[in-house]
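As a warm-up, study this chain.
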Amino acid sequence: MAHMKIATWNLESINRLTPRREDEFHRTMKKIEPDVWVLTETWTDFKPLPGYELVAQSSEARDLNPERRWVSIWARSSLTYEQCTIQRQPDRMACCRIEQPGQRDMVVVGTVLPWPSDKLWPGATGFCNALADQASDWRRLQETNDTSSFLVAGDFNQAIPYQPWYGSKQAAKALQVQDLVCLTPGNDPLTGKPRIDHFCVKSDGPRTPVLRHVDTWEIPLLAGKPITDHSGVYIDLDVG
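Now compare it with the structure written out below.
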């Protein structure tokens, strides 16, 4: 079985990227060293570490400053990859296919789904509408890459399963009807709070990627304050 480590982290780019803050991000990223980074709320010129290449990035968004992006996907330079086209919500999603010689390729979608006060997709109804829109693209990408494993990662802004104050029951139910298996349900063991950053894989019977390990890491502090308001999470997968 081929082994792949993938991490996702929301960098809270609404706050300015100072040199000291960037150093703290890099110091932590060096400890994780996944094969693929799915970064959310990031910047156009932010790079995880040397040895990674930008694989796919969401388009400029009308609700962000030009130097910010909702999603960027970075992969180790040693990997072979191809960017995939996002037709629905290219400002909130990015996608690539990671090629694995002798093994199944993996299509990786990075996403940011709406939060309750999202002005473009407000409330639980807005979440469900945005999800339906994105999911139509997920199905298209699965159909056009039907021999590949399929994974969606990023900031879902939703506890899975639902917990009060972390999304909505309506949104959680809408996610459940997708043909995906959440690999990161429940609470973050470090904070005790529900996770809202997730990895979900296509349910594909015996060909579904096998989760070997899931873990998180402490949010670094700078001058006594967290450098971001999100914990990161990574998974180790066997993909055959």
